[in-house]
Structures are given as structure tokens and as C-alpha cells.
Amino acid sequence: MMATFLWNHYLYFGESRVALPLAAWVAACFVVAGQGWRALRWAASFGVGGALLMAAKSAFSYAGWSLPSIGVYSVSGHAMLTAAVYPVLLMLLGSVLGRQMAWLGLATGVGLALFMPVVLVTDFHHTISESLIGLGVGFAVAGVTLWRWRPVGFLHVGATVALLVPVALLFDPRDAVEDLQGTLRSRVMLWTGVTGEYWRSIDPDPATGRRVVSVGYWNTRGTSGQVPPSAPASQRMAFVWSSH
């Protein structure tokens, strides 16, 4: 029963409203520990990784760009965030208790990240390629940060918690992340002039059990059914239209 509960809620680890506040906490802890350059390296690598992910997602959502031959449509943000955040976070926390616990924390974080694609693919959230690309970007972010690792102390962790808890009590960081996502989405649509978004769904074929990827276009102006001019001709025949 516990295994079922964990499986059903595993995606929570990779949600941006959870992972992004944790990433901010990691950066703050590095600063408190006097590792300003590592905090900068973490922020820069995380920012670059996040920008690459958002660019890939936007290319599909707003222009229909994809690589159907290898099953790439919308790269997994859950896989990227899990692979980037948890190896660093758990190694940081483990280092408080010594070198061996730091390595155990790293191994646990890597294990959490490696299991995320299993859940994503099994539950039809992403293709294997989308999950592995996200995983690779996340591990690259973590690797840049963990290079030449230096431990942090218990006082550093405690001081960071003491500094950020009052902030978290004043406003919910998860709400801030969701507001940011909504703002970015509306801005992108405004800047690009698009009137809708492409979507991708993965479902099992009732007859064969094979995975079937459906791609469609949702027009926010209610003109669903008209193929966007930016869509490649090879993909137009495969589109599944949706009015919602």
C-alpha cells in the first residue's frame, strides 16, 4: 500500500512548485556557508538548464517543432528538475554528518532522479526520449555544482532554515512559482503572436497495447480545426483536433 502511495505521488518530487523553492534554498545555504562561487555556479547552471528546457518546450508548444522519429515532442521538466535538485540537495544535507553520509545523500538523490523516467514513461506522461533528455540536462546541472565539492556545517543549514522560514510564512513559494509560470506563458503568447498551443498525448492502443502519440493544436480563439501554417506538412495529417 505504501509503495502504491509513493508511486502515485512520485511526480510531486519533480513539480516546479516544489523543486524551484528547494533550488533557491540550496543557493542560500551555499551563500551562508561562505561558498559564494558555488552558489553562483549553481544558479548559473540551473538557469541555463532551465532556459534550455523552456526553449525546447516552447518550440513544441508554440511552433509545433518535434522529432517524431525519436519520440521527442515536449521534454520532461519533471526529469530535469529531479536530476538537478535532489543529488545536490541530499549531498549538501548529508555532508553535515560527514563524508560518507554526503556520498549516501548523493546516491539517494541520483536514485530518485533515475526512477523518475520510469514513472513518467510507465504512466504515459512522457516518451523515453523526452524523459532521458530532461534527465541528462538535470544531471549536467548537478555535475557542474558538485565539482570540487566542499561540505557545509550544521550551523549553515540551521541558519539558512532560520532565514527562509519567516519568508515562507509570509507567502507560499509554490504560489509564486505558479504565478510566474502563468505570466511567462501569457508573455510568450503575446510576444510571438500565437493564438494557441500544440499538445501531445500518449495512450495505449486498445488492440495492440502499443503506445500511440497524438499531436493536436488548441486554438484559444475558438478556431480549432485550422492547421497552423507553421506546422510541417508531414505532421498535418497526423493531427488530432480538440476543441477544449
TrEMBL record:
Molecular function GO labels: hydrolase activity
TM stretches of this protein: 43-63, 70-89, 101-121, 128-147, 153-171
Enzyme class: hydrolase
Keywords, comma-separated and alphabetical: Hydrolase, Membrane, Transmembrane, Transmembrane helix
Domain of life where this protein originates: Bacteria
Catalytic activity, EC: 3.1.3.-
Protein name: Phosphatase PAP2 superfamily
Record organism: Cupriavidus necator
